[in-house]
Every structure is written in C-alpha cells, then in structure tokens.
Amino acid sequence: TPPERIRNFCIIAHIDHGKSTLADRMLQETGVVDQRHARAQYLDRMDIERERGITIKSQAVRMPWAVQGEAGDSTYILNMIDTPGHVDFTYEVSRSLAAGEGAVLLVDAAQGIEAQTLANLYLAMENDLTIIPVLNKIDLPAAQPEKYAEELAGLIGCDPAEVLQVSGKTGVGVPALLDTIVELVPQPVGDPDAPARAMIFDSVYDTYRGVVTYVRVVDGELSPRERITMMSTRATHELLEIGVISPEPVPSKGLGVGEVGYLITGVKDVRQSKVGDTVTGERNQAAQALGGYKEPRPMVFSGLYPIDGSDYPILRDALDRLKLNDAALVYEPETSAALGFGFRVGFLGMLHLEIVRERLEREFDLDLISTLPNVEYDVVLDDGSTFEVTNPSEFPSGRVASITEPIVRATILAPSEFIGAIMELCQNRRGTLRGMDYLSPERVEMRYTLPLAEIVFDFFDALKSRTRGYASLDYEPDGSQEADLVKVDILLQGDTVDAFSAIVHRDKAYAYGVQMATKLKELIPRQQFEVPVQAAIGSRVIARETIRAIRKDVLAKCYGGDISRKRKLLEKQKEGKKRMKMVGSVEVPQEAFIAALSQD
Ligand code: GDP
Ligand code: MG
C-alpha cells in the first residue's frame, strides 16, 4: 500500500471510557469482524485483562476503509494500534504512540476528562501526534456532551464543534470518526529506497509460534526469508513470516514504508525482540537506529515466597515461563529466615506486581506470600562505597553518607471541593505541588512530585477514600532525589526478622516501628519465656512491645497417668510445630508472618 493511502492511529482514554468497545465497533464497521463473529472485546487477549477491563499488551489491527471523494470511492488502510492503558506501562504506551501519526482522544461523555486521559494526551503531544477529540457513550442518559465538549476543546485548544460525538456501543458516529481519521491524520513519511528500519512497539510470546513481534516500518521494506538485525543487540534472525493482523494474522509478501504488522523469527524469548528497538536488514543495514529506545527498568521490588516451601521449584519454573512473555520481569533467588526460600522480584509498578502475582497463583496454582513492596535505593557510605538496595534487609552496614530514592511526576484530577484533602494527603506523603489548573470551575488538575515509595504504599486507596472515589491519578518516573531515609529493623528477642525490615523516612520510622511491633505482639502466641518485640534504627531501639510468658505445659493436665493420652498430646504438639518458623529462639507460626505482611 502506498503511504498516501495509510493512516496509523491509536485510541487514548482513561480506563472504562470505552476504548475496547469502540475498537471492536470499528472492526465491525470496517467489515474486519462481521457482526456474527464479533465477540466481546476482540482486542483484549489475556483473561486477566478481560476480567479487569484493562489492556496490558498492545496490538495492531489493519482495517480497510472506503471514503467517498469527488473521483469516486478510494480505499484507505487504517492501522489501529492498541496501547496499554496503565501508568506502569508508560514506556510501552509511548512506543505504541510513536508507531502512529494520530490519536483519538476518547472521553466518556458522562465523566469528562480524567487523569489517564491527560497523561496519555501529554505523551501523544510529545510524539507530535494529531489529536482527534471524541466524546464517547453519548447514548447514555447521563451524558453531558455540551459540557464535556467544551472541557475537551478547552484542553486541546479547538472549537467545541470540532469534538466528535460517538457511541461505541450503538455505533452512532463511528463511520464519521473513521472518515475524520482519514482526513486529519497525516500519512506516514519515510524513505522507500533507504535501508529498512522498523520500530518494535510490542512483542508477545505465543506457545506455538514463539515470539510475535509488532513493528511499524519507517524506511525501506522488510520481506519474508531475508535476514534481519536487531540494532540494540546486533543479534540476527531469519524472517520466517511477516504479515498483518486483520483481525487474525495474515502473512504478506512484505511490509513497506508506513506499514504496521508482525514478524516471526522463531525466537523463544521476548527479550530478543525488545520494545523500542529498531529492526534492519542484515545485508543492507541502516546506519542509525530510530530514536527512543530504552531498557525496561523495574521500579518496585518485592519478595515472593511459596507458602508451602515444597512449591519452590514450581515457583521458579513459573517465573521462568512468565519471563518469556514479559521483558520487564526480573528476579533472583532470595532466602529469608522468616519465610524460607523465595525470589526477589522486580516490577514496573504496583499493577504489574499484582498481575504477575495473580498469574502465578492462577495459572500455576501457587499460594504465595509477598513482602511489603519497596523501591530501589542508591546508598553511599562515608567510605565512598555505593550500593543499589532492592531489599531492605540487604542494607549495607557502615555510616551512611546519602540515600537517593526514585521520584515520580503525578497528575491528579478531582472535583475542586477536594483540593484541601488532596493537598493534605500529598503533604503527608512528602509531595511537592508543581502546579494546578482548573479544567472547569468544578474540576481541577493538580501536578505533584512525590517519592515513588510513598505511592507504592496504598496511595491510590488513600486518594480514593479522601475524594469519595472521584479523584483519578496517573504518574511517570521523574528521576531520583536524596532523602533523609533510615532502615528500620523489627527484632524478636533481639533477633532481626528479615522480612520486616523497611527503609522509611526518618519522620515515619517511629510510626512504622510501633505499627509492626503491635501487629506482631498480637499475632505471635505466647512462649515459655518473655519475648520483647522491638523496632530499631541500627542499634537504637525506637519502639518496644512485650509478649508475656506462659507456661504452656500440655502434659500437666495428664497427672502423669494415662500414657497413651500423653503420647497423643505430644504428637499433636509436634504437628503444630511443623508450620512454625524459628527466629532466634522464638517460635513463630507462619500464619503470623503472613497476617503481618498482608496490608490492612
Ligand atoms: P476501556 O477500559 O476504555 O477499554 O472501556 P471498555 O470498552 O471496556 O468499556 C467500559 C464500560 O463502558 C463497559 O461496561 C462498556 O460496556 C461500557 N461502554 C463502552 N462504550 C459505551 C458506549 O458507547 N455507551 C455505553 N452506554 N456504554 C459503553
Ligand atoms: Mg479496554
């Protein structure tokens, strides 16, 4: 297809504003999926995605669309590039945006602009995309199209009359939207005679075919059977198959300038097909890769342990399997005195953590316990040595010169009556207000910088509860910053419980210490001796609770008489001990650790 007949676009929207529904409707309107075969949410592939209504992996679909012009009908090729919607996947979003020239900015006509709408809009603008403002769900009785058309027009600087109105559900306005995409989205530009350059915007592991890589060709052409080179690693592969998705994979004779499609090389690991990387021909190599490539970087870490220790090999194999389809997942074995054998796992963010954990439990039938999530800290000691700490219990000993933590830029949208509550929360979480704008008299956008560590710890829940669910949040990494942080240890009878060590701000050390000490005091049964539960910074104790002693002599009841009853009791006691963990000389039921680690 010549570039002048190609339009590449994506749909950006806040969660639940109807992106998947509209995408499915477009597939029907263009005849790619017929009414009879349309199944709900064609584009969302994974079960978890469908259940939670979120799109994790992006994908591209090719749709023909005939536009009536003066010289009769002309058929265009529309490539719809699906973007993941969540903050954890900002980099993947930015790569799928970079694969097109236009973006449909979709806003629920009963809800208005939300934080994700804005965050994605900013990304689209950074990529110089043409923005098409669209109100969705106009069939809803609660829709207020005039009001929100004005809000949307004010945001992007256009006339409210230019805001399209559609319903993905009924199909109203969708053909007009497709016409507008053809009219307004610029055609792709590239040099057909230059060495091939294609950008990878997604790669997905498929059990039968190996890795399927989604690309947008910028220059030149890729053809089946030729050898290609991945420019970041210089690895070469044979192109076994190349084609387009419409809506199932259709092999083609090649992809040229501006085209979007998939390629298969037989590799088995998505790490060999990295999002953002440039594909070129092996023989006729491009001199320079396309810009924008970044290695995925885990931001949040947590220890994952099987509740049943004998499941450890299953957990290891399960992580190996998930890794094939998740280039951002990193892990290494870790042992904990309290929890046994497990892994320290790195994630892009909290949703990524939840998804991985849920997949492990669901697809591999594992029961897991995870330690409190933490971020990565750069620690410099007085002697000049430096450490990257992803596990608080591995905090280096010695005098600390400085600790640096990751920072995020957060966008919060809420009704203006909640400004005070939001400010208080952000202040509590060590945030700095960077700016505030009114989208309308009743709705405000607040921009903050916040330590990522404060966000991973139940920030979203706190925000929701203070704003009766009305606030929305989005954030992206924004470098790092020094802070007055300390490591707090929790000790039982003088021995550190490794799974409970945490790195927290000095002002919050006491609160953390008291909270954990109180929890453990409640959860750990009395022992034969008194057990102090302490929180300490280094050797300095900052909080203390005591588990009082008990004489738990089960044999005392037997009056030395009935020998078989005695044996039974002893056996029972032994069984109870199996699930006990020893911390120093203290016996702790594993359930106590699990309960203490589960967030309430
Ligand atoms: P996404 O999270 O942006 O992909 O949103 P979905 O497409 O999953 O839609 C979220 C919810 O809104 C679903 O319950 C849809 O049925 C509903 N929905 C989507 N589009 C429309 C629409 O045009 N009209 C109405 N009434 N409901 C819609
Ligand atoms: Mg969706």
Automatic annotation (TrEMBL):
It comes from the Bacteria. It is found in: Cell membrane. GO terms for biological process: positive regulation of translation. GTP binds at D16, H17, G18, K19, S20, T21, N136, K137, I138, D139. It is a peripheral membrane protein. It catalyses: GTP + H2O = GDP + phosphate + H(+). One of its GO terms (cellular component) is plasma membrane. Its main location: membrane. Pfam families: EFG_C, GTP_EFTU, GTP_EFTU_D2, LepA_C. Keywords: Cell membrane, Elongation factor, GTP-binding, Hydrolase, Membrane, Nucleotide-binding, Protein biosynthesis. It is an enzyme of class 3 (hydrolase). GO terms for molecular function: GTP binding; GTPase activity; ribosome binding; translation elongation factor activity. Its EC number is 3.6.5.n1. Residues 4-189 form the Tr-type G domain. SUPFAM superfamilies: EF-G C-terminal domain-like, P-loop containing nucleoside triphosphate hydrolases, Translation proteins. HAMAP family: LepA. Belongs to the TRAFAC class translation factor GTPase superfamily. Classic translation factor GTPase family. LepA subfamily. Required for accurate and efficient protein synthesis under certain stress conditions. May act as a fidelity factor of the translation reaction, by catalyzing a one-codon backward translocation of tRNAs on improperly translocated ribosomes. Back-translocation proceeds from a post-translocation (POST) complex to a pre-translocation (PRE) complex, thus giving elongation factor G a second chance to translocate the tRNAs correctly. Binds to ribosomes in a GTP-dependent manner. This is Elongation factor 4. It comes from Ornithinimicrobium pratense. The gene is lepA.
